[in-house]
Amino acid sequence: MEILTYSREVQLLIGEIQANRGKNPTALISACDKLLAYGNSMKDNALVGYALFSKGETYYLLNDATNFYAQMIASIPPMEDAKEWFYVAMANNMLGIASLNRGNAPVAIDYFIKAISICKDNSLPDIEWIIHLNLGSLYLNIEEYHKAISHIEIAYKYILEHGEMNSYLESITAILLGLGRAYLKLNEQAKFLEIEKKLKSDCLPYLQELDKIVIYCYFARVHNAIGENDARDYWISMVNQLTSKNMPIMDVFDDFYDYLDMLLSTEKYDDFFKSYTVLDELTKHTLIKNLERKLLTLKIRYYRRVGQIEEYKIASVLFFELSEFMERENRLMVSDMVVMKNSYMELTQINKKVEEENTFLQKRSETDPLTGMYNRLKLNEYSEESFGRVTKNNSSIAVEILDIDYFKQFNDNYGHQAGDDCIKFIANMITSITSNENTFAARYGGDEFVVIYENMTFEEVSEKAKELRQKIFDANVEHKFSLVEDRVTISQGICYGRPKVSDSFFAYLQGADKMLYEVKQQSRNNIKICNAEELN
């Protein structure tokens, strides 16, 4: 947009918008409205698109999702008509970031691929590398680490070739941390240690104190991964010193989440709550329910681990409520995206790329990467359909939750690779007895699995559960560190019943979880089944 070709009045409005960006949202939106009125009266799509884009950007910073989507989506058609491809690409990129933050990866990837295609078609490499970095974050979040690395490395190459850019230090830090997160997840020790070395030499000496905190989080995870506990504890103490309510939450959330997960896994509970409390307060201020829900999963795991059952139940109900809110929010995102698709030109070339990526993502998003079983996302979808069927047909359903006895001791003593192999072994055993149309199985997380039995009698469900337990026992996989047997075993909790319209999968899952908890309180390597009516 050639600003100097416009009248003095328009130049002043544009100047006011630029001066107030990120500082005075009220003044900025007022200037945008004036520019929008002028653009509409002159039928100047460049001005109309710029005014809508600037309003959308402001609502994004204010965490106002509804107004953000409405303004940003509306800005695309006039900017396309005016061939303002820089802003079209930026709008799609921001829509992708917002969709990812709100937990809708398929919608996010659609926006990102569109933005990259626009950049390639219009030679915008200074924006394209940013979008690749965001795609890398997306793939990190869905645990597709090799694809994450491939996108982040594109951004890395661009940054290394443009060392003169103003935001070089912040950009190189974000890129190195993204690569480091992926290499840690893949347990590629040489590579995550090399990233640590580069962060220490190229970034740490030049950053402000508050900006160093995510690097310290990474260092703590690195030294935990290689078993250097003293060094790990040193970096944890550094994080504790810097953790602050002034942290830019959107910039630190993913790094802090992985750090908190490490603290929880190593039972550093005091340090866990020091950081968790601050991050929880900052996350609530964003009003982004997906981030609240993701953070809440850590607290639920903590309550379960230490046996605080009442707190666990309260947190689980909150998790369910946040999930319901997200479903409504995601429907709004999809609806807005449909409107966008119907309102402006679709490029065949872009659609083909999006279709290929979405086909991959849809399959990946339903599958647990370690075991190949269905994951929690598919479990949520299937359970809703299943409860609808049995309620309509007045038939029975049973929900089982099971886990591996003393798995932490197995993992700590035999190593993480053996732990992964043990989880895959259990998954294969479950799959071998649930491969029919009346059963469904998914990995619930960690060493926990959920099985749904549909339209089977109480006795049939009991026999199936016993069959699974016996097959695992007979396989005789060594576990010298178990306190119940010398081999790998499981504990099982099951809730059985004929659901009424008012019943839900969540209630049955809680019932099964209660049974599993009681099994663990009494002994392990056992099964306990309740009738859903007993819980009312």
Topology:
Blueprint: H1 8-20, H2 25-42, H3 45-61, H4 65-81, H5 85-101, H6 105-121, H7 125-141, H8 145-161, H9 168-185, H10 189-203, H11 213-225, H12 229-242, H13 249-265, H14 269-286, H15 289-306, H16 309-343, H17 348-365, H18 376-393, E1 397-404, H19 407-414, H20 416-433, E2 439-445, E3 448-454, H21 458-475, E4 490-497, H22 505-522, E5 527-531
Parallel strand pairs: 4-5
Antiparallel strand pairs: 1-3, 1-4, 2-3
Helix pairs in contact: 1-2, 2-3, 3-4, 3-5, 4-5, 4-16, 5-6, 5-7, 6-7, 6-17, 7-8, 7-9, 8-9, 9-10, 9-11, 10-11, 11-12, 11-13, 13-14, 13-15, 14-15, 15-16, 19-20, 20-21
Order of helices and strands: HHHHHHHHHHHHHHHHHHEHHEEHEHE
Helix content: over 70%
| Integer-rounded radius of gyration | 26 Å
Low-pLDDT runs: 333-348
Distance between the termini: 65 Å
Could you name the CATH homologous superfamily of the domain at 376-535?
Reverse transcriptase/Diguanylate cyclase domain
CATH class of the domain at 376-535: Alpha Beta
Given helix and strand content, the structural type is alpha+beta
| Spatial strand order of the main sheet | 2-3-1-4-5
Strand content: 5-15%
CATH architecture of the domain at 376-535: 2-Layer Sandwich
Give the overall average pLDDT.
86
Q: What's the total number of strands?
A: 5
CATH topology of the domain at 376-535: Alpha-Beta Plaits
What is the molecular shape?
globular
